[in-house]
Write a structure and sequence with these properties.
This protein has nine helices and no strands. The chain is an all-alpha fold. The chain has two domains: about 230 residues, Substrate Binding Domain Of Dnak, Chain:A, Domain 2, CATH 1.20.1270; about 130 residues, no CATH class. The longest helix is centred in the middle third of the chain and has 89 residues. The protein is elongated, with a radius of gyration of 36 Å. The two termini are about 30 Å apart.
Amino acid sequence: MKQPGVFLSLVTAVIVTTSVTTSSAAAVDDYPTWDQVEAAKSSVAATLAEVAAIELSLDELQTRTATLGDDAVALSAAHEQTQADYSAAAAQQSVLSVQADAASARSVDSGTRLGALGAQLYRAAGTDLSLGAFFDSTHSDDLLFRLGTMERLTEQAGRLTAEADAERNSAEALSAQAEAMTTERDRLQAAALAGLTAARAAQQAADAEVVVKQSASEVLYAQLASLKNSSADVERQYRNGVAAQQQYLEHQRQAAATAAAEASASSGSPASSPVPPAGAVIDRSGAQAIAATQVAARGWGTAEFTCLVQLWQRESGWRVSAYNASSGAYGIPQSLPGSKMQTAGDDWQTNPATQITWGLGYIASRYSTPCGAWAHSEEYNWY
């Protein structure tokens, strides 16, 4: 189960990042104006300075959307884990309650049987089993019979007493466990509701920032193209390409460091596997169909596609929402973190095509082919 501190820190992140979104919307006014762009054309130095200012604005937009997107993914995963913990606690509480009720019923039944046996023991002893009876030889056979019966009944009473005590203790223990689990269930239910609110707020903040980014980027890329006698599309593709190459390298470094840290911490036990949120739609065949098309477009054959299927089945099970809580890796290719994939598209959280485009770009950059990446994964258990 998630530790409360982890959950609270994630909720705090929502508050912080939501305030960042508000400030980022206000920061739109800080972007270079067209008048400044035109004035910058008066000299090479002014042009270069204005280009740097525009590129800085684009970098800031990219950083903000990345941070908010990653926060939304982490909070969503935290909520889903808490919801799963709540469901497990509710089920366990229900089982314990049933067991406690059953143990209580058995305890009552044992007490009833013990009472009946006590009455039988009293009748067996009779009212004339006195000291004089022990010296009355005319009733010796009857006395022996009564004594034998009393001995057997006393032994049975002892067993029933022990059984009743055990059932009562069991009922009390199970009732205490059920009560404790009820408290835990209620706590997790409240945490799940709070987590849902936080996750939704984080996603709304991330979505709002994407809108800001897309709107501002259109203007900024047009300004950049004007200063460099280029086109907005060319400038966008160039910046995304450079950013992607830098992130591919950084991702590989992070993957290696994460794998080493997990291996050291686990001491031989298996590393944690990414899991999709509960209720997430998993369309492996659809994702693989998209990948097959992109693999063919790159000129790779069926053998490479087979390697890719094996690689991403190991990494994420081909699940768009697969999230590794220990590392922060996300999506089909397990981008670390998920926001690195925004160079392939702002819909990187939910679009398999965007994730696959980024993943194949990473593979081509760092391993040349999917089989190269698969071979590395086979040897080192990361890629």
